[in-house]
Amino acid sequence: RKEVEQDPGPFNVPEGATVAFNCTYSNSASQSFFWYRQDCRKEPKLLMSVYSSGNEDGRFTAQLNRASQYISLLIRDSKLSDSATYLCVVGTEGFKTIFGAGTRLFVKA
Amino acid sequence: EPEVTQTPSHQVTQMGQEVILRCVPISNHLYFYWYRQILGQKVEFLVSFYNNEISEKSEIFDDQFSVERPDGSNFTLKIRSTKLEDSAMYFCASGRTSNYGYTFGSGTRLTVV
Fold it and tell me: Of A8, A25, A30, B5, which residue is 20 to 30 A from A67 by alpha carbon distance?
């Protein structure tokens, strides 16, 4: 089983749609969880940290289920500028972070 | 907004040569990282650095690699005897804490020929 697994997509959605991404991780001792976005040939940029209680930042909502070792990201009212690759990232003890391979999102007009 | 700065943006080197990739982390950050991304592949963790020492390293980070914080502001990655398969984008990142999330630099594209 991969350490961090994501559906590669691509997800092709119209503007205004709601889209959800999922991620699973294998190490039950993982301690920190994040979603990053990466535009083509650019650096990853932190979108949001993910907490057990769930957290929301504008149109973005992230959820963590430690029992199922599952993380999700929901994007509401998709914009053209949301087109990117979304990276699920898990931090283990010892400051090691494992990136998923990413899910590609294309938002169309 | 504070930035992580990496230089050079692109480095071309001959196989077998040594390269040093440089990074200036955000000034009040305490945790520093190097990652690499081979074209078309996922971001891979190389090493984390805290309190002037390596705190964790991956299987990729073997004796060919070393990191240093020579002067309290710069953070360098040295790759000795480069191989063709070392060609990748190398990202530096820094964070205030270990679990808050990190800021990435724009990367150095290393091409080994």
Answer: A8
